[in-house]
Design brief:
single chain, Helicase, Ruva Protein, domain 3, about 45% helix
């Protein structure tokens, strides 16, 4: 069988590692496993991997900490994070630090396989992903041709009017909103509506940018400028010349890079690392953040002069929970996309699912909705999506009917979660408050888990 790529699975549950390894090897991948974050980093330093599949909760660190270290060691490796739905906010957060995507427990093999194939296809690795599109450029996580859908709410219509007003101008725009609200799509639509539409749109994910290579990514470098600089390279400013440079998660830039960025915006010229020649550029800046930059300015972690340079015009995106009238518009849109991608024919969703969607808070916003719809389409056997394919938190809190009797990924994940809770309860002398704190969940969630797994609440 042809090898499709090399995958590193990092999970402290040996059973999950074994099942994932066997499943993915049968699909043609070469798979290695590690049970701690430090072991995962050691494996990454010794061998080349195309993708890392890691649990969010590891014995020695979180998946977010591991993600940052792996991206610093190998910026091109794709990372997919496995998480429980109680960690959905953090699961969405890992995207801004460079994760390709996340998958939630219980694990479904076909969902994991599809996500892996998408990640490897985007990175240019040969895969069996349904999409046959060529690898996307690594300057952006989404294709510049992806259409923008404005939604149906009055707020969405007003946001689009502001985009139409500011797009033809040379003004810098600061796009603000929670993770998953569609900030990059807004940036791309502003570029499409601008006078620079035929010029490059180049994106930099500042959250996933290791500090030691940030200067090179922005400005490029000359051969020999630093260890490993075996040839000269253009930075993103040069690549975006004449067009638009999108700085995603701008609040994550280090203070010294902020200063260098400010100088380029003021002088419209820069020099490569290791170079002495000034390079003039004509670049429009669009920036995005899910942080409160005014507060960061007050705390001294973000330069005030750079803030005002970037914030010549501001667009704020509201979370999905505050614009529920857009919910079904995007749900139906994502069903169409998932049908095409997964070669399914789901026609819609049931009234019960609509009610569940309307009562849920969507902490991951549009990105979470898209993932929920995609998983739902994958699991739906008929023409209409029913409530049984929804994640437990959306469905009714937690699933009270858990079967530990088979050897599926789903049962192993539930069993591992139950064993972890029992272990922590024993460790804390059955102190629920301490156990909830160690598990990083609230007491209500813990009590629901105790009920779910039939653990005696003594």
């Amino acid at each position: 069988m042809e090898t499709k790529g090399r995958i590193l699975v990092v999970d402290d549950e040996i059973d999950i590692c074994t099942l994932l390894k066997g499943f993915l090897e049968r699909k043609g991948y070469v798979v290695e496993t590690a049970h701690t974050g430090s072991d995962g980093l050691k494996a990454l330093s010794k061998s080349e991997f195309d993708l890392v599949l890691t649990d969010f909760r590891l014995p020695d660190q979180t998946g977010l900490e591991l993600l940052k270290q792996m991206k610093a060691a190998n910026p091109n490796v794709a990372v997919v994070v496995i998480t429980g739905y109680s960690d959905i906010r953090m699961a969405v957060e890992v995207i801004k630090y460079g994760a390709f995507d996340y998958v939630t427990k219980p694990l479904y093999p076909e969902e994991i396989l599809n996500t892996i194939n998408e990640a490897l296809s985007q990175n240019g690795v040969v895969s069996s992903a349904p999409s046959k599109a060529p690898a996307k450029p690594k300057t952006s996580s989404k294709s510049p041709d992806t259409p923008y859908f404005k939604g149906e709410s009055i707020e969405s219509q007003n946001i689009y009017k502001n985009m139409e007003i500011v797009a033809p101008t040379p003004m810098s725009v600061l796009i603000q909103g929670e993770t998953g609200t569609g900030k990059e799509f807004v940036a791309k639509e502003i570029h499409r509506l601008s006078k620079r539409a035929k010029k490059p749109f180049v994106a930099i994910d500042c959250g996933a940018l290791p500090k030691d290579i940030a200067g090179s990514e922005f400005f490029g470098h000359e051969k020999g400028a630093f260890t490993g600089a075996v040839s000269a390279r253009d930075g993103k400013f040069k690549l975006a010349d004449g067009g638009t440079l999108f700085l995603d998660e701008i609040g994550n830039l280090s203070y010294d890079i902020q200063l260098k960025l400010l100088r380029v915006l003021q002088e419209r010229k820069f020099s490569k690392l290791g170079g002495s020649k000034d390079i003039e550029v004509d670049v429009r800046i669009l920036a995005a953040t899910n942080e409160n930059l005014k507060q960061a300015v007050a705390e001294g972690t973000f330069r005030e002069d750079l803030y005002y340079r970037l914030n010549e015009f501001s667009i704020r995106l509201s979370p999905l929970r505050n614009r529920k009238s857009d919910l079904m518009f995007f749900a139906n849109l994502f069903i169409d996309q998932a049908n095409q991608q997964l070669e399914k024919s789901v026609s819609g969703i049931s009234e019960e699912v609509i009610n569940k969607f309307q009562s849920y808070t969507w902490p991951g916003n549009l990105r979470e909705l898209k993932n929920v719809i995609k998983r739902g389409v994958l699991l739906t056997q008929g023409e209409e999506m029913q409530v049984d394919v929804l994640p437990e938190e959306i469905k009714y809190g937690f699933n009270n009917e858990v079967d530990f009797g088979d050897d599926t990924l789903k049962s192993v994940a539930h069993s591992a979660e139950r064993d972890r809770i029992l272990s922590v309860l024993e460790q804390t002398g059955n102190n629920k408050s301490k156990a909830a704190k160690i598990l990083n969940i609230d007491r209500k969630t813990l009590y629901n888990k105790l009920k779910q797994f039939d653990i005696q609440n003594s």
